[in-house]
Design a protein that fits this description.
Bound molecules: cytidine-5'-monophosphate
Structural class: alpha/beta
Largest sheet: 8 strands, mixed
Shape: elongated
CATH topology of the largest domain: Rossmann fold
Number of strands: 19
Number of domains: 2
């Protein structure tokens, strides 16, 4: 009976793993072992081209189940056709996902077993892309990825590093342990514990990182203030990811409702001036400064007493004073840290971001669109276009936790290049 096996009174988790035709297909074998070891029931679907990389027999032996390849296989249809497979799955994991598969899924094609399954599946879908870095960066792939994310798909990776083709960049499939951690965490908190003890990549070990996050609050009078819609989620995600990558992290936070990340020194501030003071006190001890806070550019000249309604006046003029530019001040420090800024723009993103990069004399800037349907302030997801003096990189729309990890990898790479050149 589909989906009704019981063990100790509880049904095993059903993981449907789809393997497509990339060199990383061999890593999917490790993923099957990992899922099985954690007590899940695994079924594997392969595209025709995936069978050129790894023999179906490998997955059959590891999963203990027949491997599904054909859409119209009379025997398989009787036992477990595409609709039954889609219903059976608690989660569909596509790892590795090639550019071709991503394109097909984004268009809603249904010309093979996997693409048909994707349309039929109502369970959560996770996609772990794997491809050459130029293919990953191509606008066509980035647009297809954005479409999948709009469908509700969760993205895992890709990671940065050496590729099978000899190039370096984003496009490597995330390691099976990292993929496993995300899937098992989604399925079962207890299983997550077992996997999360696996070693993480500690690419920031030995580095001190100062991060700002959240909005600032600028008082008008004793009871009113000016602020903005920043939730602090991006800065907090960057702080958590930096700790995970081995850094010693100090977070200067404006007023937010988020719980402080573990193992981070948090300095709470309210106004831009307080943030400036806290950052400048810490900056010279740091290797990297990441200004993710939405700092007020202007602050009202504060009234000691509560402003009174003027019954004879229809309008009220507030006098605002420029706040110190924290990021530019840190960048101007002699022997200061490597500086990374953020730019939230409603239009002409690249022009404004590049202008900030040069005007504030910072090392990198991560720009994102605001005022759009998806991403930006208070959203769980975001996309970033990252610029530096002689390069740029698009980080596709994804969960802010994953985005923070990818951003940090990019920062670490640039930081090491710049430091090596000094
Ligand atoms: O100039 P703009 O405010 O658009 O630049 C955004 C970047 O500058 C962000 O990284 C933000 O944290 C930083 N910033 C700052 N101090 C300010 C204003 C912005 O550090 N007063």
């Amino acid at each position: 009976m589909l989906g009704k096996e019981k063990q100790s009174g509880q049904r095993l988790k059903h993981i449907l793993l789809a393997v497509t035709g990339g060199i990383a297909a061999y890593k999917a074998a490790e993923l099957v072992r990992l899922f099985k070891r954690e007590g899940a029931e695994v079924r594997v679907v392969m595209t025709q081209s995936a069978t050129q990389f790894v023999a179906p027999l490998t997955f059959q032996a590891l999963s203990g189940n027949l491997v599904h390849i054909e859409l119209l296989d009379v025997e398989a249809e009787n036992a477990m056709g595409h609709i039954s497979l889609a219903r059976w799955a608690d989660v569909l994991v596509i790892a590795p996902a090639t550019a071709n598969t991503i394109a097909k899924l984004s268009q809603g094609l249904a010309d093979d077993l996997l693409s048909t399954l994707y349309l039929a599946a109502t369970c959560p879908v996770y996609v772990a892309p794997a491809m050459n870095q130029a293919m990953w960066n191509h606008l066509a792939t980035q647009e297809n990825i954005a479409t999948l994310v709009r469908h509700g798909v969760s993205l895992i990776g890709p990671e940065q590093g050496d590729q099978a083709c000899g190039e370096t960049g984003f496009g490597r499939m995330s390691e099976p342990v990292a993929i496993g951690k995300i899937i098992l965490s989604a399925l079962n908190e207890e299983l997550f514990e077992a996997v999360s003890t696996a070693p993480q990549a500690k690419f920031l070990t030995g580095l001190k990182i100062l991060i700002t996050a959240g909005p600032t609050c600028e008082p008008l009078d004793p009871v009113r203030y000016l602020t903005n819609r920043s939730s602090g989620k991006m800065g907090y995600a960057v702080a958590a990811a930096a700790v995970k990558a081995g850094a010693e992290v100090t977070l200067v936070s404006g007023p937010v409702t988020l719980a402080p990340p573990e193992n981070v020194t948090v300095l709470k501030v309210s106004t831009a001036e307080e943030m400036y003071q806290a950052v400048l006190r810490e900056a010279l001890k740091q290797d990297i400064y990441i200004g993710a806070a939405a700092v007020a550019d202007y602050s009202p000249v504060q009234s000691i007493h509560k402003l009174k309604k003027q019954n004879d006046q229809d309008s009220l003029t507030l006098v605002l004073q420029k706040t110190p530019d924290i990021l530019a001040s840190v960048a101007a420090l002699e022997h200061g840290p490597f500086t990374v800024g953020f730019a939230a723009e409603t239009h002409d993103l690249e022009t404004y971001a590049r202008d900030k990069l040069t005007r504030k004399k910072i090392d990198m800037i991560a720009a994102n669109w605001v005022g759009r349907e998806q991403g930006g302030f208070d959203s769980e997801q975001n996309a970033l276009q990252v610029f530096w003096s002689d390069g740029e990189q698009l980080l596709a729309m994804m969960d802010k936790t994953l985005l923070a990890e990818q951003l940090l990898e990019l920062i670490a790479q640039r930081f090491k290049t710049v430091r090596a050149g000094r």
